[in-house]
């Protein structure tokens, strides 16, 4: 089994045709050697060894169900036309779960016992959870007594994702892989944020145990995919290049009239390769290598010493698209300010100490989409502090407050502490700019 394509909740790819109606969300699964059928409503023979999509339909007044579909034409490399199963829905909301609080089936995985499993997002009495289901034929599903993961007072869990990551290396693995060399990632979305935890999945006990006490409660200590606008994400395994790829919806917060004038509302993120950090504590994300094929003119600067409070213009970059990699090496870190990182909210700290606030070590970083007079600019920058344990902490911020002169645009600042030691590693930033989109994944690769 392997997922074929990614799915962004609430966003449909162009030129996809359905027999009737439309959908909110979908997940693709590729099955092999599926032999069962449904009496009276058989899927086609190709269904037995083909791709299937389990999706949440757009249906008023009852969206609380999951449906099944398969490709109409397997010779189409884009699989643009799909046929809905006439026996839909294959899942409905459990008893006690409100219709609007049950959605988004995950990519299914197949266990060593040959049984398919998947999770569906939802909540029960405002307690978010990933309901877990099993099936031997991908048509008839049974819900387990307990969810795979849950958290109190988090509301409806949206777009859950569950997949393995290898403990050593950067390669991805198929969603069905289970052995002693992998950990598992449980991801879900609520409050407009995609949260994740890393832990141990035990099929025999049908449970997932997060490591280090980090769950999915929405606290400042919990892990996120991104600390800016990055939501409704989906990952998939690319078996050609043996990698796991992640992409998401980038929502915009402009007026409806602005959206009408632009002709769109929201963007799709740059795809990112995802793997487990060497420490095993977090995921590393990095733009997929194909983006590098878009590069043309190169501008290179090396061994440039930046004076305090200075702004250095990188000349020669005039295109509307830019891929910038910049590394900083710091000295005399003993002068860094002291901050209790266990109690401070990094986003709040980025707001109070924006790009105009000078500290002992910071801000230093990049001004993207900057006008000559700097009247408009988007600052992506770092600060280095000493934490309560005498160690160094690196704060990464994205300051949007001067990114536009318009008053109707949301210019909230974002930020997080990144897990690097500036004594031994250069602080490296990669920034992708495409006209209206600036992407700086807040999960760094150290060169």
The gist of it:
The chain is mainly beta and 447 residues long. Helices cover 3% and strands 37% of the residues.
Protein described:
With 447 residues, this protein is mostly beta strands. It contains 2 helices and 29 strands. The chain has helices at 256-262, 346-352; strands at 23-30, 51-57, 65-71, 82-84, 91-92, 102-105, 109-110, 116-124, 127-135, 142-143, 149-151, 158-166, 182-190, 193-202, 207-210, 223-224, 231-238, 243-250, 267-268, 272-276, 283-287, 321-328, 337-338, 364-368, 378-386, 392-399, 414-418, 427-434, 437-439. Strands 6, 7, 8, 9, 10 and 11 form a 6-stranded antiparallel β-sheet that branches. Strands 1, 2, 3, 4 and 5 form a 5-stranded antiparallel β-sheet that branches. It is globular. Residues 1-24, 31-41 and 442-447 have low confidence and may be disordered.
């Amino acid at each position: 089994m392997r997922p074929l394509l990614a799915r962004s909740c609430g966003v449909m790819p162009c030129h996809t045709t359905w027999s009737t109606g439309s959908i909110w969300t979908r997940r693709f699964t590729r099955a092999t050697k599926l032999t069962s059928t449904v009496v009276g409503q058989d899927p086609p023979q190709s269904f037995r060894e083909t791709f299937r999509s389990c999706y949440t339909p757009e249906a008023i007044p009852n969206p609380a169900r999951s449906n099944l579909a398969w490709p109409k034409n397997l010779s189409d490399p884009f699989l643009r036309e799909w046929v809905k199963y006439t026996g839909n829905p294959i899942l409905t909301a459990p008893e006690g779960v409100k219709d609007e609080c049950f959605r988004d089936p995950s990519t299914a995985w197949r266990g060593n016992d040959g049984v398919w499993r998947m999770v569906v997002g939802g909540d029960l009495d405002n307690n978010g959870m990933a309901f877990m289901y099993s099936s031997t034929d991908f048509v008839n599903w049974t819900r387990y007594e307990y969810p795979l993961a849950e958290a109190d007072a988090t509301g409806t869990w949206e777009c859950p994702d569950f997949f393995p990551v290898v403990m050593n290396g950067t390669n991805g693995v198929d969603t069905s892989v289970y052995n002693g060399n992998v950990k598992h990632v449980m991801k879900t979305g609520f409050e407009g944020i995609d949260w994740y935890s890393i832990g141990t999945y035990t099929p025999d006990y049908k449970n997932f145990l997060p490591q280090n006490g980090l769950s999915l409660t929405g606290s400042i200590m919990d892990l996120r995919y991104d600390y800016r606008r990055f939501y409704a994400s989906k990952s998939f395994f690319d078996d050609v290049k043996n990698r796991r790829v992640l992409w998401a919806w980038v929502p915009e917060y402009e007026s409806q009239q602005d959206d009408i004038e632009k002709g769109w509302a929201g963007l799709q993120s740059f795809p990112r390769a995802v793997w487990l950090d060497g420490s095993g504590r977090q995921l590393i994300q990095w733009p997929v290598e194909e983006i590098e094929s878009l590069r043309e003119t190169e501008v290179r600067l090396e061994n440039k010493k930046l004076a305090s409070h200075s702004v250095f213009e990188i000349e020669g970059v005039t295109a509307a698209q830019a891929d910038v990699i910049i590394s900083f090496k710091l000295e005399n870190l003993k002068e860094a300010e002291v901050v209790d990182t266990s109690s401070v909210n990094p986003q709040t700290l980025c707001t109070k100490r924006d790009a105009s606030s000078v500290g002992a070590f910071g801000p230093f970083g990049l001004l993207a989409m900057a006008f000559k007079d700097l009247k408009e600019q988007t600052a992506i920058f770092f600060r280095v502090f000493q934490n309560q344990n005498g160690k160094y902490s690196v704060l990464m911020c994205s300051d949007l407050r001067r990114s536009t002169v318009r008053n109707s645009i949301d210019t909230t600042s974002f930020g997080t502490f990144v897990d690097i030691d500036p004594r031994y590693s250069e602080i490296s930033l990669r920034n992708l700019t495409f006209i209206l989109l600036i992407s700086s994944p807040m999960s760094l690769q150290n060169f």
